[in-house]
Amino acid sequence: MKLNRTRKQILRALMAKPSTFWELIKEQDGHLAHFTQVMEEMLALGLARCEGSYIYLTGKGKKEARDQGLSPLQPLTCPTCGGKTVTLQGIFPRVLKEFEEIARQRPPAIVEFDQGYVDTMSTVARVAIMYQRGDLENQDILLIGDDDLTSIAIALTGMARHITVLEVDDRLVEFIDLQARKKGWTNLSVYRYDVRHPLPREFQGRYDTFLIDPVETLPGIRLFLSRCAMSLRGKGSAGYFGLTHLEASRDKWYFIQKLILDMNFVITDIIHNFQEYELEREGFVSKNYPLVQRAFGPLPVPDTNWYTSNFFRLEAVAKPRVPEQENIPAGRELYFDDEAYATLP
Amino acid sequence: MKLNRTRKQILRALMAKPSTFWELIKEQDGHLAHFTQVMEEMLALGLARCEGSYIYLTGKGKKEARDQGLSPLQPLTCPTCGGKTVTLQGIFPRVLKEFEEIARQRPPAIVEFDQGYVDTMSTVARVAIMYQRGDLENQDILLIGDDDLTSIAIALTGMARHITVLEVDDRLVEFIDLQARKKGWTNLSVYRYDVRHPLPREFQGRYDTFLIDPVETLPGIRLFLSRCAMSLRGKGSAGYFGLTHLEASRDKWYFIQKLILDMNFVITDIIHNFQEYELEREGFVSKNYPLVQRAFGPLPVPDTNWYTSNFFRLEAVAKPRVPEQENIPAGRELYFDDEAYATLP
C-alpha cells in the first residue's frame, strides 16, 4: 500500500522528533480538514499517541514508517531566508525597522473580516519581491484589503508612484490615512470600500500592480481577483496574492488557477510557505475554531506561527478578462466554506 | 510614457554598474528575442553604449532612468541559497560531493539534442525539493531525458524505490547504466527511448513522480508532458520540470499552463531562476547561435552561467488526461521555434 502524502509527511516528521499538533501542521502540505482527518486515523490505528502537548510515534508507527522506506525528516529550508528566496538588503533593513515601529500601533485583528496578519518580515519580503521583479519603482499600485499594512511598507521604500488602498475596515482606513499624513506621504491614498460593490470607475484601468491577501473561499477569491483585474492597465501589468494550502485543497487551487488563466493572467511565481501569520494563540483554542473542534482532542495553545501561505505572482498576457459576477456572496459565504478551518463560522 | 519591464530592468542594472551582455541577461525577466531587441533600441537611442566587453549607461540613459523613478539595482536574492529556497543539509552535502565526482566523467553535451546541462548544485537542489515535498522516499520516479544525470543524484540519496530513465542518447544510456552497475544500484534502470514514440505499456500508470527538463517549443513540451502524464499512477502523483523564460515568452508560458491544467495538473510551486546551466562559452559565440547573430554587435565570450530556468512542481488532482498527439514534431521543429535563441537551428 502506498501512503498519502500527508500521512507520510507526518510520519517522517515524528520519526525526527515528537511534535505538537501545531508544529506538525508546518511539516505537511495538506489542507487542515485533511490533516485533522489523517491525524485522527493515525491515533485510532495506534501509529501515534498524545502525551501532554506532544504527539509521539508508537512502535507500530515506527514500523510503518520504516516499512514505507521513510527516514527522519531532514529540514532543508534555507536557514537564511527561510525559503523566501530574498533577504532584506540595500534599503530594506531600514524599511523593516521603520515598518515594525508603525505596525506596533496597528488596530487588533477582527476575525469577522478574516483578518489575522502576516508577520512584519513576510510583509516587507513581499515588497522586496515586487521590487526585484520591477513591479514597485514608479508603479501605480492597488491593494484591496490591507490589514497587513503592506501599503505602509511600500510607502516606506519611497519608490512607488502611487499607492491606493481600498479597505472595508474603518479602523484601518483611519490608521493608514493617519500614518500617511504624519509622514507627509502624498502618494498613499486610502478609501473605504467593500469588495462586494463594483469597483468605482476612478480605480478602473489605471494600475500597474495589485496586491491582495484574499479570503480562501472560491467565490471570495473570484471576487477579489475580478476587482483587481478591472483595476489594471493591461498586458504586462502584474498581480500578487497570498494563497494558503491550509484552507484551500489542491482541488480548490486547481479551480483558482483555471480562473487565473481565464482572466488572461499567467502565473510566474509560486513561493512555498512564503508568509507566516501572527494569529491569536490563547484566543484560538478558546474560541473553538473548526480546526480546534474537529481535532482529535483538547489542543494545547499554539506554540508557533503555524499558519502559512504561498505567494503568487501573476502577469497579464493580454487585457484582463473580468468574469461576470452573477453570485456575489452576501454574507458569511464570502469567508466560509467546507475547507475553512481557521475562520469563525 | 511607461517603460516596458525589460528596459526598466536593464536601466536599473546599468545604473548600479556597467555590465556585460551576459550579466544583463540575468537581471531581466524577458525572453532573449525581446531582450536583444530592447538592447538594440537602447543603443540606437543613445541610452547605452558598448566599450570593450561592457555596456555603460550614457548621460541620456541616466536621465531617462531618473525620469522613470528608477534607482540603482539593489540585489535581494538570498546569498545563502541563491533564491533556491533550500540548502543542502542532512545527507545532501554528501550526495553533492559524490555526484560531482561522477558528473566530472559525463559525456560532453550534444547541442543537436538540446543538451546543455544544469550545474551540479542545481541538480542536487532539485532532488532536495523533491525530498522536501515527499516525492522522493519510496517513490517510483521517471525521468525522460537525463543529460543532467539527475537520476544519479537521486540514486545517491538511497531513498527512491525505483528510478527509470528513458533517454535518446546512447552515450548517456551507457554512462548511467555503467554507474548503476559500478555502484550496485538495482533500483536504477535506463532504456533508450525517443520521446516521439508512444510510451511503451510497461512504463504506463506506474510512477509516483516524474522529472523532465524538456525542450522549449510548445509541441516539444506538450509531447514530453503527455508522455509523463501517461506514466503516472493518478491523483496525488507529482511532476517536476524546468522551464526557462529566456526561450519561452510569457505568452508561451500561458499556453503551457493551459495545457498543464487541461491535463488535470495543478501547479504547486514555481521557483524563479532555480537552475543555472553550464553552457559552452567559447563555442557559444563561435557557433553563432541566433542570440549571438541577432545581438547588436560582436559579443564577448560569456563570463557567467547566464542561462537559467524556473523549477515547476505539478500535482495531479485527478487521473491525468493525455491530449491527442496529432502532430508529433518529426525533426528540428521539436527543438526550434521563433523564441529559440540559444539552440542551433
TrEMBL record, chains A, B:
InterPro entries: BpsA, BpsA_C, rRNA_MeTrfase/Polyamine_Synth, SAM-dependent_MTases_sf, WH-like_DNA-bd_sf, WH_DNA-bd_sf. Pathway: Amine and polyamine biosynthesis. It is found in: Cytoplasm. SUPFAM superfamilies: S-adenosyl-L-methionine-dependent methyltransferases, Winged helix' DNA-binding domain. It catalyses: 2 S-adenosyl 3-(methylsulfanyl)propylamine + spermidine = N(4)-bis(aminopropyl)spermidine + 2 S-methyl-5'-thioadenosine + 2 H(+). Transmembrane segments: none annotated. It comes from the Bacteria. It holds the Pfam family BpsA_C. Belongs to the branched-chain polyamine synthase family. This is N(4)-bis(aminopropyl)spermidine synthase. It comes from Desulfofundulus thermosubterraneus DSM 16057. The gene is bpsA.
